[in-house]
Amino acid sequence: MTGTQDGLARFRQRLAAAADVMFDAPLEPRSGLADEAGNLLRALVDRTRSTLDRRYAWLLHTAVVGHLPLIEDVEELVRRLELARSSTDAEVWLLQRARELTAELGAPERELRVVSDGVVVDVNYSAQNDRHTGIQRVTREVCARWDAEHDITLTAWLPGGTALRGLLPHEEARVLRFTHVGMRTEQRGDRLPVRDAPLTPMVVPWRSTVVLPEVAQGSSSRHLAALARFSGNEVAAVGYDAIPITLSDLRPGTEPNVFTGYLTLLKHIDRVAAISRSAATEFRGFSEAVRAQGLEGPVVSEVMLAAEVPDAPATHTVAPLESAGSVPRMLCVGSHELHKNHLAVLHAAELLWREGLEFTLTFVGGSGWDMAGFDVRLNRLAEAGRPVRMLGAVTDDELWAAYREATFTVFPSFHEGFGLPVAESLACGTPAVTTGYGSTAEIAERGGCLLVDPRDDHSLARALRTMLTDPRAYRELKEQAVRSVGRSWDTYSAELWDRLVDGKGEAA
Amino acid sequence: MKVVAPLRARGAQVVEALVAQSPRHRAALVDRLQTLLRTLGAGGARPTEQVDDLVEQVAARLDPHDADTMWLALAVIAAELPTAVSVVAARRRAELEGPATVLRDAIGDVAPANRTRRVEVATDEVLVDVNHLARTTLTTGIQRVTHATVTRWHRDHELSFVVWTHDRRALRRLTAAETTDMLTGAPRRSSAAPELPTSVPTVVVPWRCRYVLPEVALEMSRTRRTLALVMHARCATGVIGFDAVPLTTSETTEQDVPAQFINELAAIRHMDRVATISLAAETEYRGWRTMVSAAGITGPSIRTIALPSSVEAPDATALAATRARFCLPTMPMVLCVGSHEPRKNHLAVLHAAELLWRRGRKFSLVFVGGNAWNSERTQQRLAELTEQGRPVESVRALPDETLFALYRLARCTVFPSLNEGFGLPVAESLASGTPVVTSRFGAMAEVGESGGTLLVDPRDDHSIAVALDTLLTDDHVHARLAREAAERPVRTWDEYAAETWDYLVTSNPMDADA
Questions:
Q1: What positions does the domain Glycosyl transferase family occupy (chain A) (predicted)?
Q2: pLDDT tens track for B222-253
Q3: Complex ipTM more than 0.90, yes or no
Q4: Contact flag B220-A242 (C-beta cutoff 8 Å)
Q5: CA quadruple B125, B129, B134, B135: dihedral positive or negative?
Q6: Inter-chain contact A261–B250, Cβ cutoff 8 Å?
Q7: A282 touches chain B (CB under 8 A)
Q8: Residues A92 and A130 in one domain
C-alpha cells in the first residue's frame, strides 16, 4: 500500500488525522514521509494496545486500511493487539491485514478527514440520483433546512460501500438545491454518470452524531453497524416502515433478505425517529425483540412526516375524461403494488357502477411490483366502457392539479409508514377515503376522511357510496379537508433535529 | 354486465368438453364436487353425476362474500391448496359473475398432474404437519424437539400426521409405513433427504380441524398456502416457536433464510397460538407481533412452554473410550458444543482460552460442531492455536453417547452465544452435572437460572476469561455449581409434550362461527 510516494503520503495523512483526535498534544514531527508514518503508526498502535479501547481500534483500523471496518474486524484487531508480544508484532499483523483487505476492497486512494463533535448526514442515494420520491424528498427537504441553520457534513459511500466520503459540488447541489420541474417520476431513477473525484477525502466521524435519513443497503449497513457499535459516535435514523417484515406476503419474495440486513444495523444504533406512530410501533417491536440478545435496540420516537403542497394555482392540468362533464371524480394516487390494495378499489368501484352510480376513477402512480392482475382487471373494465384510466407517473404540478380537481381520493392501503396521498389530498382540500388504522388513520385525525377496513370490499364500497350519494356528508368532509392543517417541512426538520441530533423529547 | 349469461353457457360447454376427454378425470371431478356438496351441507341436494348440475348445486351453496367456503371450493376442485391472493380474486369474481363461473374456471385450471387425484376433506381431526421431519434424517436441534414431541403426541392422542406433496402445494396423510419410519428411525446426522413418493392418490383438505405445526417451514410454496389455510380453513391453529433469529440476527443466517422465515411468519400472523420454547423466544415473537400490529393485524397468542433437557447417562465403556480419545491425563478438559457460526461466538472462547493459557492455566479445549456459514475466521484461529501447540481440537458432530460422555468428563462447558431460541448445550451440560459459563441474557441465562452457571457478557472476552478461570481454579465454586446443576429440577419430554398438546390442541378453541 505504501508502494508509491503518493500512497505513502496519503497513508501518513490518514494516520496523522487519526493521531490528531487520539492525542491531546501533537506528536513530535519527524523528517521524511516514511519515518513520520512509522512514528505515527507506532503511537497509534501503542495507545490502542495499552487501552484496548474499541473506539481507538475502530479508528486505527480505519486509518490504516483506508476503509471502514466490520464488527468482526474491530473485534479481531482488539484481540490481536492484546495478544501481540510487541508493538512491532502488532504493526506487522495490522499491515498484513491491511494488505489482505485492500487486495479485496481496493487500494485506499483517499485522504482522511475526521469530523469531530459534528453532525454527519448520510445522503448516499439522494446525492447520486435524480429520483425524488418518498425517502429522497424527505432527505432533501430536511438537509436543505438543516444546512441553513446548522453545521452539517453531507456524505455518500465509496462505490464498494466501505467508506464515507464528502460530496462533490454537483452532488451537494442535488441534495440542497434540488430542482425537478417537469421531470416525470419514472425518469428520475437513473443513476447519473459518476464523475469520480479521488481527491474527495474519506470522512470519518468522531464523537459526532451520524444521521441516516435514507435506508442503508448492502455492505454499507454492515460498516455502519460496526461504526454504531464501536466508534463512540451516536447514530440516529429516520424510520420509514417495516413493510418487508409485516406484509411480506404482499411484497417481492426476497425483499426480507435485504431489509433484515438493515435491521441488523438498527439494533446497534441509538435513536430512531419514526415518520408516524404506526411506523414507531414497528420499530419499537423490533427493539423489543432484540432484548433477547442482550441489546436495548434504538430508542424509538415519532416525528410525523410533513406534506406540503404549493399554494400557487397549478400551471398544468390533467386533461379531463372526454365524457366526464360534471360527474364526480375519484382519484387514487400511489405506485401500483399489491399492498396498496388497488384491486379492492377497482372491485368497489365496479360494485358502485353496477348500482348505477356515475363517477370517474383515475389512478396516478408509477408501476410497482407484480400488478399484472391489476392491469388485466383495469383494462377489462375500461373495455366494458367503465370510465377508469391509469395516468402512470406524472409531474408534481400535474399531481397537485389532479388532487385539486378530484371530488375525493381513495387510498385503502393495508399499511403505510406514512400515507402521503392522504396528507397531500387534505393539503389540497380534497377529502379522502382511507384505511381506518395505522398512519392513514393518524393523518385522518385532521378531518376530511372516511375510514374503512381495507380487508372488507363492502366497507370500502360503503364509504365511496357515501361520498357519491350523500351531499351533506360530503360537504362536511370537504369543509374539514379545506380547513385541515398539515405539517410543514420547517416544523418536521426542526423537530427531527431536536429528536435525532439533540436527543430531546425521547419517549422512554 | 350483460355478458354474464353467455359466459356461463360457454363455461358449461368448456367444462363438459374438458372432462369428456378423460373418464378418470371426469370421475375424479364428480367425486370432488359431491364431496364439496356434502361438506357445504347437502340438504335438498339432487343426486346426480352430471358435472354442470353439480357445479350449479355447489354454486348455490357458496356465499360470494364468504372467503372461507371459496377457499374450500378452490382447494377441493384444484386438488391443491390455494394462496390467499387467489382466494380474494375468486371471491371478487364470484360476487361479480356468480360462483358457478368461478367454479368452472377452477375446473378448467386444474393442473394436469392433479386431474386424477382423489380429494378428501378432513373434518374434526387433529392434523400435525411434519413435512420436514418425515422427509429428512438430518438431526438438528429443532428436529430433535419435533421428533421427541410428536412421538409422545402420537402415543397419547388421536392425531393424523400430514406432509406436503413434493411440489409443496397440497397436503396428504403420512402412510403407516412412513409414520413408523419417522417415529422409530434412529436419528442420524446426515443431510441425505430421501424423497417421499411423488404420485399422490389422495390429498387432504382440512376443514374445521385442529392444525398444528411443530417444526419450522421454510419452503415458500408451502408457507404461502399455509397462510391461506390458516385464514380460511376454519381450523384452530398452533405452532411451536423456536426462535426468530432470521429476523433479529440475520447477519448470522444463510442468504435466503430471512425471506423464507419472514414468509412463514406471514402465516403465523394469522394463527391462534404460538408455543415458544423459551422466554427469550417469546420476547422475539412478542416484538414481532408488535411490529405486525401496525398493519392492523392482532397476531397470535404467545406462551412459553419451556423445553426439557434430557441426557442419557453414558455407560462406563463409553466414558472410558471417550476419555481415552479426548482427554489429556494431565489437565482438565473444557467443552464447547455448537457449530462454528459467528452467532455462537467461538472466536471469543478461543481468545479467552489463549489469555488463560498464557497465564499458565492448564486445560484442554474441545469444540464439538461442524463448520457453518461464515466460519472461516474461527477455522483460521483454530489452526493457528493448534500450530502453536495449544491443546485445542475441533470435531464434527458425534454420536449422542460420545457427546453425553464428553459432558460428564468436562471440567466445565462454555457457551457464550449471542442469541439462541433455547441453548440446548447449556441444558445438556447442566443435566450432566457439569457447570457452564454462558451469556447473562436470553435463553442462556434462562436455562441457567436455577443454578450451575456463571453468567458473563459474551461481548466482553475478559468476562468470559474470568469466569472460565474461576471454574478451572476455584474448586469451591466449581463444587457448588456442580451441586446446583445436579439438584436442578428434572423436566421431562412427557411433560413438555403434554403441555404443548394442551395449549396447541385441547384448549385451543375452534373459531366461534364454526
A1: 327-481
A2: 999 999 999 999 999 999 999 999 999 887 77
A3: yes
A4: no
A5: positive
A6: yes
A7: yes
A8: no
